[in-house]
Amino acid sequence: MKKNYLLLFLITIISLPSATAQKQKQVENEYAAYFTLPRESLYLHLNKTSYFTGEEIWFKGYACDQKNQLSSKATTNINVGVYDAQGNQIKKALFEAKDGVLQGNFTIDSTFTAGRYYVKAATNWMKNFKEDNAFIQKIEIITDQSIKEKKVTKEASFDFQFLPEGGHIVANTTSNIGFKVIDDHGKGVSASGIVYDEQKKQVASFESNTLGMGKFLLQPKKDTQYIAEITLENGTIITKELPKATSKGISLILQSLSEGQIILDFSTNEETLQNNPFKVYKVLIHQNGKLKTAALKFDSTKKAVRIPKSELFKGVNTITVFDDKQHPILERLFFNEKAIKQANIKVSKLNTINDSILLSVKELKLGKNANVSISILPETTESYNPTHNILSNFYLKPHVKGFVENPQYYFHKMDRKKKYELDILLLTQGWSRYDWKDIFNSKPNALHPFENGITISGRVNKPASGVKRIFLHTTKNHNGKFIDLDENQKFTLTGLFLEEEEEVRFSYINTKGTFKKPSMYLRFLVTDKEDKISEVYLNETKNITTTAADFSIPKDFLSEKVEALDAVVLEAENSRLAYEDPFMESPEVTDITEQDYYNHYNVVQFLLFNGFDASQAGGAVTIRHRSTRRGIPKVFFNNRLIRDPEMRILYNLSLANIERIVVDRFSYIPINGGHANGIIKIYTREEPLFKHGANDIVYLSTKTTKAFTTGKEYYAPNYSSYLNPIFKKYGTISWIPTLELNTEKPTSFKIYDTYTKNVTLFIEGISENGDLISERKTIQVR
To answer: pTM for this structure?
Structure first.
């Protein structure tokens, strides 16, 4: 029968329908409601996946908004942890994401034994969804003690599955039957086979790819049982019954024969047509809350629909067909590469400088600036085996369910062959990760908010009354500021980025306007509950073998001196020597005394009598040079630039609360693309101006119980020899967590010279408009 081709125009659903169309549009409404809340995904680029004791797990994190396919900036709090083989949490830390990226590290210390571990990254917001979008990567720890695992010899077992396209085999239609075969380690096994009917007549044959997947066409008859005889790559022959064909229904064959369009070949049978000749089906094409829809009606048993790829979404599209009762009857995943740009990275060696090698890198194709991370390893490395690269993690993982063997394979140098194999993978996936029962009945709720920083809730207990506001002294990441209290002397502070071991200090102001130490109740709030790797994930990955599991290293291979490379913080004898600034040519330093307080009382009066036109009114402060030609000076409060144009923090600020003021009226400094004439630096007191006792201090100080971890600067492990074969397989050369690529010129960076002839750069990243970058480049450096 001649095919009836129809060019299908898709209607994009961008708003809720009118009341009269509410029943007709029920599926669209339910789907849109399920994806009302934005969803974020995380990807960690690890510098490698096999580590020695004494090394660091270095990582760069990328957050992505699934719907918009751009960097996600909604969450800043990223929890990253290390978990043992049973999924128990070993280490966990809080890292700050800025503009959708983060970086950090974990030390592999002596508490780690040899074996399998996991690195997991997640956010609080992810807890709102049934679909787990946490990032998990299995790693191996190698020590000088070999892993003593009992090797159990057992007969190999295989799992063979027939997976019809769309989910069903329909009698008397042309059906596309996908299949896959895996061994007991979860890896695909090459296979070929023949399909026989009940009379032992051959009706089809098939052959898999190297990943154990393939497809074949079949025209099944009603009430007929088909059996396949399958030959595996080791010569084993097994038989498997195909699922029986249903008597009524629709089958689908998706074809992507050109770069510009796909064809959906729908077919049904006479029994289905006679049962309801006027039945209208609904075709939904959807992705992460975005939805396009069209009606489908059969005039004969076949309907071929052409869809331009420009009408589809970038990445994985889910095609679902509903009957006239709003029931999903078939589903197919399809990857649309049309709008996906493949990066083209060029890496060159520029020079050798002392113990370093200077490289340059440039992206030649995307035409946008990009932020990337680079792991540099020996060309012969066996230590870099991530499950996902950034493309498979963001384009594929959110849409498929269950374990996928080597998903990054499909996205590394994607060509026609890999596009075909990716389509077979999606065909064999059947129904997508999102269950329509959940879409109709279990909408997610925003019970777990986006977390941005740490929250402090508190109450001033003493003085018991009369305190209207308190002062939070400057922290590493925040300017000092006054906080208003409610009638019960309570307050809540949000969005604080406090670092480990950092102190927070609070003061109240007495009736004389001076800082005093309060008695307070403080509570630090941030999600850091201990968790586990899910049993589902552990079961899916437990049998996946790794090359490092039975490997041990010599005791002297990695020097213990590596620990001496930890960051060392040197404290100056006088931390107030902040006026030793290269921009301050002739600073005038005033250490505030009681006489200064009696002469000027507050900061504004002090500046007024020290060369500036300073005034205050209505809660705002103005500071200018007396000569209008000189402009406006820049004012720093505890070494942090005051960005508030009204400088409200200085309003009525008593000089009794100030320890030192440094003024340089004549320095000319560049700031944020402009310039400023003059610098004023103001420092608050740690001890009261008017002392009544030896231990009298003006603030309450406490260390935060919840804090962000700041990653170390990368250092090279101290290997005993770069010529050792162990280094060439499992050593690391360099790690560049953040490298900005611009469109105008190459970006250069240094790597350690390990006397390795060829090195491989594993590059992951994202451009400013959301294009993903994943490249491997091997170059000769010696």
So the answer is: 0.85
